[in-house]
Each structure stands twice: as C-alpha cells, then as structure tokens.
Write a structure and sequence with these properties.
single chain; alpha/beta; TIM Barrel; 6-stranded parallel beta sheet; binds (4S)-2,6-dioxohexahydropyrimidine-4-carboxylic acid
Length: 446
C-alpha cells in the first residue's frame, strides 16, 4: 500500500490550529501526531509554512452530465474542483435526462465511475409528478432530494402545494431547496420588460429575482419542514431578510440548516457594472448589506455550509443579453481561494472556513468517514500556501467552459496540493492525471 507522510503542517481542524504530521497508509489516515518519523518506503511532503485542511465537500454543483456536456462534464469539472481543493462534490439533477428516478440516479453513478478526480454523490430531483420515486428512495442512494421551489436552469419547478406537502412528509433523506417564489419573479420580469423592453440592464437582476421572492419561498420551505418534521437544507441564501428564519444552534441540534455560496459572499450588486451577465445567477447576487448579513450569519452559525453552486455555461451563452444569458457561473477552482481571502481580511476565521466547507457538509449529509482530519478517516486533504499569491489567468482554467468571473484577479493564497483517498491528484499547479474519486457513502436518514 502507498504510504504518504505530510510533515510540519499547520493543521486547521475541528476548531483548532496546530502543528502536526499526518501519516497516510493507502486511502486512509493512519496517524496524526506532533512528530512522526518517516519509514524508508514513505513519500514525504514537507508542508512547512503551509496550512493543511480537510478537503472542501461541495454540496451543490452542476457538472452538466448527462446531456449538457458542451458546458461541462463529470471528468472536466471534477478535475477543476480537485485543483481548487474540493475533494468531494454533490451534483444536482437538472441535467438531461433529469435525475428524477432511481434508475436515472443509478445510471448517473455508473457514468461517474472511474472518471472523477474528486468523490461524488448525486441528488434525486423532485418534480410535480415523482412522489413515488421519492418515497421509494433508499438512504445512501442519493445525498438528498433537490426541490426547485423556484424555477431556474432546467424545467424542474415544483409548485404544486399538495406535492410539496407530500415531499416534506415522506422524504426519507434531507430535502435541499432552491427558494425563490416564481410568480413574484414573473411579475417583476413583466414590470422590467414594460420599462426597458428587451434591454433590461443587468443591475435589475436583484430587483427581478428580489429579496421578497426569496423570503416568500424560503419561509414556505421552513414552514413545510417544521410541520412535517423533515430534514431541510435551504440552498444558496442571498438576503439579510431571510436570516431570521435560521437558528444559531449547532447543526447537531437542528433539522433545518442553511447554505451560502462563495459568489454571494464575495460579490455584491456593484459588480454588475463590470462583470454583467458573467455574474448572473439564481438567486441573484444582491446588495453589500445583504453580503455583510450573510457573513455575519455564517459567523453566528445560522448558516451552516459554504458551497459553490458551480454552474458552468459557455462564454458565448453568457455574453447574451439579460433575458437570454443563462444563470450560473463556474466556481469550483477558486472557491477555497475566495474563502482564504475572506479569512485574510478577517471576515471569517480559518476555523470557521474549515468548519463550514468541510466538517458541516459531512455532518449534515452524513458523509461517512470524511470531512475531518481524523485517524481512520479517508485522506482527503489540501495543503494551502497562504504566502503565495495566485493570479487567475485563462490558460490555468480547467473547467470546460474556460472562463471565470475571477479572470485577472490575484488571490492571496495558492492551492498547493490536493490529496483524494490518499492519492496526490494535484500538486504545484498541475493535475497529475490520477482519477481518485470514489462514490460517497451517505448515512443520514430523516
Ligand atoms: O444560477 C444558477 N444556475 N442557479 C441555479 O439554481 C441553477 C444553475 C444552473 O444549473 O445553471
């Protein structure tokens, strides 16, 4: 079995930052200690001056396979994720065919086998007509049930009130919701069209996909979950006004949890001016005040998880006018870098960064033996150099769509090494071609 020893690392794990060596045998962590002697047949990585963290577990990505592979696929996007320090991902069902049956789920797992650079799990998508599939779903078959309570990319809106009651009553695993009230958005769109015709400026996006549309829908999701005692995870929150819906209690005491995405923590609406439709996404990036409230909620523990909602579209598609440009942006390669910069500017602590990007998704989705640097756990690890800036430039972009909202931006931190299941998949700016990703095991039942 391969043996790997990481020495002199500054380990950020479980709320503590300390110096440690980590010894890996095969795919798991064998030992963590202050000083571990290297045996003769061990590969040593000296991590002096660098941080060691458990790899990010991204609970919301759109890798576009099957069916939309002109935008991205499981191989390309998982490679970009690994280069960004994301060692596990959970992929959404708005693909073609949609992942709305247990058979489609099984097909998707087959498609992923031996092609992913990071570990993978898939959501079953809810529809107005598939309550039978949801009821029959077995724990472990999917990371969760994705319910688009607001319409977004793909035609997956679940808006039948009776169906929503049944989903929350019977879902055997966690329900993850996209919350935006579509009728409110349609009204706002009609209003904007009246004012601007087809040339609606991008700055109208947060008025069209408004805070009120978010709040109406997320309040409904929370009410449904409470009444049915379901496990609910509200995805990609964007507004200050929704934060009162979520408790500051530790996730171990909550059945309703919340997620924020890196672009909503990083950008605010002032950036529509220079980035335009490149940062068009659903829910919309909103005001600076909203962004600050998200950071505060993250620090308070009202928001439990940080994810990406990586949603690639081609550069050509994104260059279209407001209504025609699809929503979503590629983020996996730079997500951790945005978080380390938020930590460098004291907006979040390094301990919180690791908790919300790795420990929390492992706990909330019941990911077996991952998400922590612990003896016996899988060795999904990232070495981060916080003293080495990283300039985002097109030749370094690994996503199939080959553009990034961060092009030309210099982050203060570089992802040095990514290890997945004990194998070094990315080091010194290069992927080494090892396909180390395995299917994630999910253990949490409602
Ligand atoms: O901006 C978004 N893009 N939000 C979503 O909910 C879907 C995603 C996509 O699939 O493009």
């Amino acid at each position: 079995m391969d043996k790997l020893l990481i020495t002199n690392a500054r380990l950020i794990n479980e709320g503590v930052i300390r110096d440690a060596d980590v010894y890996i045998v095969g795919e798991r962590i064998e030992k963590i200690a202050g000083n571990i002697d290297a045996q003769h047949d061990v590969t040593v990585i000296d991590a002096r001056g660098r941080y060691l963290i458990p790899g990010m577990i991204d609970d919301q990505v759109h890798f576009r396979e099957p069916g939309l592979t002109n935008k991205g696929d499981l191989a390309t996007e998982s490679a970009a994720a690994a280069a960004g320090g994301i060692t596990s991902f959970m992929d959404m069902p708005n693909v073609n065919p949609q992942t709305t049956t247990r058979d489609a789920l099984a097909d998707k797992y087959r498609l992923a086998e031996n092609r992913c650079s990071a570990n993978y799990g898939f959501y079953l998508g809810g529809t107005n007509r598939n309550i039978g599939e949801i009821r029959n779903l077995q724990v472990g078959e999917a990371c969760g049930i994705k319910v688009f309570m607001g319409a977004s990319t793909g035609d997956m809106l679940v808006d039948d009130p009776e169906v929503l009651e049944q989903v929350f009553e019977h879902a055997p695993v966690i329900v993850a919701t996209h919350c935006e009230h579509s009728p409110t958005i349609w009204d706002n769109e009609a209003h904007a069209k009246k004012q601007y015709g087809e040339h609606v400026p991008m700055s109208e996006h947060p008025n069209i996909r408004s805070a009120s549309a978010c709040l109406q829908s997320s309040s409904m999701a929370v009410d449904l979950a409470r009444r049915h005692d379901a496990l609910l995870h509200v995805l990609h929150l964007t507004t200050a006004i929704e934060m009162g819906l979520f408790s500051k209690a530790h996730r171990s005491e909550k059945r309703i949890t919340a997620e924020v995405c890196v672009h909503h923590l990083w950008f605010d609406e002032s950036r529509y001016e220079d980035l335009g439709t490149r940062i068009k996404c659903n829910p919309a990036i909103k005001s600076a005040t909203d962004r600050e409230a998200l950071i505060k909620a993250l620090n308070e523990g009202r928001i439990d998880i940080i994810a990406t909602d990586h949603a690639p579209h081609t550069a050509g598609e994104k260059a279209r006018s407001y209504f025609k440009a699809p929503a979503g942006l590629p983020l996996v390669q730079h997500a951790l870098l945005t978080l380390f910069d938020l930590a460098a500017s004291q907006q979040i602590s390094l301990e919180t960064l690791v908790d919300r990007s790795s420990h929390a998704p492992a706990d909330i989705f019941g990911v077996k033996d991952r998400g922590y640097v612990r003896e016996g756990y899988f060795a999904d690890l990232v070495i981060v150099d916080a003293n080495k800036p990283y300039m985002v430039a097109q030749p370094k972009l690994l996503c199939k769509c080959h553009w990034s909202p961060f092009e030309g931006h210099e982050f203060s931190t570089t992802i040095d090494t990514t290890i997945v299941n004990g194998l070094v998949v990315y080091q010194g700016g290069e992927l080494n071609g090892i396909i180390a990703g395995k299917r994630l095991e999910f253990t949490r039942a409602r």
